[in-house]
Amino acid sequence: MASCAPLVVHLLLLVLCYIYCICSGHLHPLDALSPSEISTIQSIIKSSSHLSPNPFGFHYVGLDEPDKHAVLTWQSDPSFHPLPPRRAFVILRANGQTHELKIDLDNNSIASHRQHSAKSGYPMLNVEEQVAVLALPFKYAPFLESVNKRGLALRDVVCGTFAIGWFGEKQDKRLVKMQCFVTGETVNLYMRPIEGITIVADMEAVEIVEYEDRVVIPVPAAAGTEYRASRQLPPYGPRGKPVVVTQPEEKGFNFEGNVVRWANWNFHVGFDSRVGLVISLAGVNNGKDDIHRSVLYRGYLSELFVPYMDPSEEWYFKTYFDIGEYGFGPYSSSLKAGIDCPHNAEYMDGYYANGAGSPVLLRNVICIFERYAGDISWRHTEIAIPGRIITESREEVSLVVRTVANSGNYDYVFDWEFKTSGSIKLSAGLTGTLEVRATDYTNAQQMIGDQHGTLVAPNTIGVFHDHFATYHLDLDVDGPENSFVKANLRTVRAEGCTTPRKSYWTVVSETAKTEADARIAHNEGPPSELLFVNPGVKTRLGNAVGYRLIRSGAAATALMSEEDYPQKRADYTKKGLWVTPYHKSEKWPSGVYVDMSHGEDNLAVWSMRNRSIENTDIVVWYTIGVHHVPSQEDFPLMPMLNMGFELRPYNFFRAQSRDRDSTVWQTLG
Ligand SMILES: *[C@@H]1O[C@H](CO)[C@@H](O)[C@H](O)[C@H]1NC(C)=O
Ligand SMILES: *[C@@H]1O[C@H](CO)[C@@H](O)[C@H](O)[C@H]1NC(C)=O
Ligand SMILES: [Cu+2]
Fold this sequence. Notes:
Elements: H1 5-24, H2 35-46, E1 58-63, H3 68-76, E2 87-94, E3 97-104, E4 109-115, H4 127-134, H5 141-149, E5 157-163, E6 175-182, E7 197-202, E8 207-213, E9 253-256, E10 259-262, E11 265-272, E12 276-286, E13 291-307, E14 319-321, H6 322-326, E15 346-353, E16 359-382, E17 390-407, E18 410-418, E19 424-432, E20 436-438, E21 453-457, E22 460-463, E23 465-475, E24 481-493, E25 503-511, E26 519-520, E27 528-538, E28 544-550, H7 565-569, E29 577-581, H8 603-607, E30 616-628, E31 638-650, E32 656-658, E33 665-667
Antiparallel strand pairs: 1-2, 2-3, 3-4, 5-6, 6-7, 7-8, 9-10, 10-11, 11-12, 12-13, 13-14, 13-23, 15-16, 16-17, 17-18, 18-19, 19-31, 20-22, 21-22, 23-30, 24-25, 24-27, 24-30, 26-29, 27-28, 28-31, 29-30, 32-33
Bound molecules: 2-acetamido-2-deoxy-beta-D-glucopyranose (2 copies) and copper (II) ion (CU).
């Protein structure tokens, strides 16, 4: 009988776990907070006697990531191990202070509560408080006079809030700037800025605290700015015939809760109000024996820094941290079937807590689809065998997870593309409209000495700026203990008389010991391979299993001087790659509180601790970036500009062959 006991216990736990999972409404420890969990959090906080948040005082409500070890233990046998404790992390503004709370969702209680005490920084602006502040100019006499003076109709004026940044001043108020635009004859309001005015509002007092109308500059004309198809006349420009991709059989992927399984891949899809899409526990199965091998514990775009290069009075502060200051969750766009994603896509919804703490549904903000774009995954032609020509090739079919975040004038398209070869390709596409400055110039020849942009239309300057997208990639290649290896390619002189060659190149590998060894600038030093290996897992051939990060052309690094304030706040953008040891609280490279921050809490500061990163759980921070010098083609809308990189297996798959009927890599054993 004794031998049966574990089985009985196992079954009992299975039943208990099943009941528990059903009752608590979630099945996976990394599932995003459900709308009912968000409502529960709202009522726990509202009924707490010692907290009275501002009317729109909820600035972040998200999953407090469970202990990683507990998640991995659970994953090793979900029917046997209990789910880790379910908690939420909440950031509130109350009584002029920022509060951090941990909410225990297993027994609906406040597990911890503390005030944020660091010197600088405020939480993300929420939608509702921005809307409240945006009503102010329309009741503010000096602004009405400014509108009048420019001969504009007030009903055509719309305003936006812009994070104010930090430029060395002492400031104890939470402020934003506002800029206004003219719509009416066109919806392309970003092409029609009202220039010359500075409006500063206090977010807590909800009042305008500073106003200046410095100079009147004509608002650029509406003509030629409209982009809606309904307002355009044929012909619509060059266009081929319609193209449709069909899947004659069923889809090749399926969902188990929020876990997606496709070909040799499986991963969890989550959604967070700060970063939007989160991919977790991505791993591949070894074909025949179906063993799960981990690749990525958690990955997401963690910050998007967009500094503009016009130092003038009304423009100098435009140095946005789109994720840390605004958050991507609320601005995730509903995707249009057949246009934003192909007809064979499946969609997922997202939820976030609004400023009042209530759950808000975002429909179809993530799409997942199999992509066949007519590409080849591998091929070979053999002509050396006399009398025969052998050609083999396979089509490239991959799985894409896509989300689109709208950040004012820009729309960003983020793709995670999983390939059967084991590669993950990450890409960020930039489109939407430029942020333009109105000007008196109507011809580029008049712009002598004005060095801040390109004249893209009459009276319209597309201002120079950068886009730096920083990914947080907690790689777990065959387990959490990994090392970062920089394999440098070195030229060696060929010695002696055994070869007529004078030189060749070889690989000299360095394993990074501490964080100081893993701050790598794009295009610095000799060519190198960036490898993430598991020193404890070797292939049969004796190579450590690994993944390599393949850099792409989008390798811009910040050009602002180091003592410039926005650069201090984003000093991590001076390097393309950082590796840190896993630390639960190090989630966002620009810090937890980015709005008006001084840069005391960011990736570069953490890295200065110079912690050990060898053969331990490490996190890779990789920044792709472009310097954007606008051109006339970016007006009135900007054609998509793509940047990206690839995580590609490196001695990860052991002995292998190509399966005849698929492109899946198979393990022979
Ligand atoms: C809730 O559960 C946690 C453990 O998960 C425990 O530490 C805490 O004391 C409990 N709180 C209440 C109010 O029961
Ligand atoms: C980082 O730590 C290593 C090992 O302790 C040491 O050799 C190195 O000088 C340190 N680097 C910096 C920049 O502190
Ligand atoms: Cu741009």
